[in-house]
Amino acid sequence: MDDIHFAVLGTGGIGRRAIEYSSSKDHLVPVAACDRDGVAIDHEGLDGDELLAATEGNIASDGGATAVKQTGEQQGVVASAQATPTETPIDDIIAESDAIDAVLIALPNLEHDFIPRVAERFAEADYEGVLVDVLKRSRVIGMLDDRAEMLEDSGITFICGAGATPGFLTGAAALAAQSFVEIEEVEIWWGVGLKSGYEDNRGTVREDIAHLDGYDIETARDLTDEEIEAIVDDHDGVIEFNDMEHADDVLLERAGICDAEDVTVGGILDVRSDEKPTTTTVRVTGRTFDGERGTNTFELDDATSMEANVNGPALGYLKTGVRRNRAGEYGVFGPAELMPGF
Ligand SMILES: NC(=O)c1ccc[n+]([C@@H]2O[C@H](COP(=O)([O-])OP(=O)(O)OC[C@H]3O[C@@H](n4cnc5c(N)ncnc54)[C@H](O)[C@@H]3O)[C@@H](O)[C@H]2O)c1
């Protein structure tokens, strides 16, 4: 495979680690990165080490910038010598997108239509390439589908919900389902221990809080850092989530695996320990062609971190997207559609 020149929109907890992770694999060259205040572009390849060092503990995050220690004079990516301040970071990358094969969207989802609108801007600029996001909410998939024709006409291969859940675990569920002719239930249960990564992942924690009873995306967006800390304290740092609106359900349905209503997602987040509070498991229960009822189980090793389980699949799906795009397949795809589909 030729080198893939890719951009990262959002250099928060996820985006930074995507740049770091990409250096462990062949053919992935980060050429552009931005956050809300700045942009770095070098088509020969960004110096990932310098960019990561400059943004260490210094993220222009929706998780509460004031709570994040700053190492440079400026906040976020502009602390890197490769970056410049801008008020139009995404447009600056779109302007250079002719030379960019793929874009990882690691932006917040605190407005449901934010990522669909970003995709639309790439299509309006006639971008021909791959967009991959790690969004979580089921309802956003429909908003992308509404724009499928526009993306297709532009020559964009959009892979949506390609993080851990949805993403990695959705793909695993699709694979586990291949033993069965009929699926009864898909249960996704995740565990994340985030002590050392808590500062870097406050954006994700805020979005997770929106899944708790009594909260939604609007109320979570308006919480102060102190209010978030109070919620974390109320739970002694360990928060359990049930019946989450995670797009694994619609992504499995659109791949023809099962009905969305047969999928449940929940999990436990511990921000005071790096140990996972529970093992991440996907259980797919169904009936085989010869009449047996069974449950196939896929388990992640407790030693694998959230960052590894989001960024590995996201970059893996990005590479798969580039192969599809080069073969002329455009439109919106979910992770389960890129697995075998019996
Ligand atoms: N699918 C999964 O398994 C999974 C797991 C973890 C996180 N996520 C998702 O990943 C996303 C990113 O999470 P995070 O923890 O990195 O968040 P974060 O808040 O740390 O980082 C977000 C980044 O986006 C930038 N940004 C915000 N608005 C912008 C704008 N208008 N223009 C340019 N840049 C902008 C911020 O400056 C920051 O760099 C979240 O939506 C989260 O839900 C998905």
From TrEMBL:
Keywords, ordered alphabetically: Aminotransferase, Biotin biosynthesis, NAD, NADP, Nucleotide-binding, Transferase
InterPro entries: BioU-like (IPR044262), NAD(P)-bd_dom_sf (IPR036291)
Amino acids binding NAD(+): G10, T11, G12, G13, I14, G203, T204
Biological process annotations from GO: biotin biosynthetic process
Allysine: residues carrying this PTM: K136
Biochemical pathway: Cofactor biosynthesis; biotin biosynthesis
Gene3D superfamilies: NAD(P)-binding Rossmann-like Domain
SUPFAM superfamilies: NAD(P)-binding Rossmann-fold domains (SSF51735)
Enzyme class label: transferase
GO MF, any single term: NAD binding
Active site: K136, E207, H211
Assigned EC number: 2.6.1.121
Reaction catalyzed: (8S)-8-amino-7-oxononanoate + L-lysyl-[protein] + NADPH + H(+) = N(6)-[(2S,3R)-2-amino-8-carboxyoctan-3-yl]-L-lysyl-[protein] + NADP(+) + H2O; N(6)-[(2S,3R)-2-amino-8-carboxyoctan-3-yl]-L-lysyl-[protein] + CO2 + NAD(+) + H2O = (7R,8S)-8-amino-7-(carboxyamino)nonanoate + (S)-2-amino-6-oxohexanoyl-[protein] + NADH + 3 H(+); N(6)-[(2S,3R)-2-amino-8-carboxyoctan-3-yl]-L-lysyl-[protein] + CO2 + NADP(+) + H2O = (7R,8S)-8-amino-7-(carboxyamino)nonanoate + (S)-2-amino-6-oxohexanoyl-[protein] + NADPH + 3 H(+); (8S)-8-amino-7-oxononanoate + L-lysyl-[protein] + NADH + H(+) = N(6)-[(2S,3R)-2-amino-8-carboxyoctan-3-yl]-L-lysyl-[protein] + NAD(+) + H2O
Sequence similarity: Belongs to the BioU family.
Leftover remarks: In cannonical biotin synthesis a pimeloyl-conjugate is transformed into biotin by the subsequent action of BioF, BioA, BioD and BioB. This enzyme replaces BioA and performs the first half-reaction of BioD.
Function, as annotated: A 'suicide' enzyme that participates in biotin synthesis. Catalyzes the formation of (S)-8-amino-7-oxononanoate (DAN-carbamic acid) from (7R,8S)-8-amino-7-(carboxyamino)nonanoate (DAN), a function equivalent to the cannonical BioA reaction and the first half-reaction of BioD. The cellular requirement for biotin is thought be low enough that this single turnover enzyme supplies a sufficient amount of the cofactor.
HAMAP family the UniProt entry points to: BioU
Subunit structure: Monomer.
Protein name (record): (S)-8-amino-7-oxononanoate synthase BioU
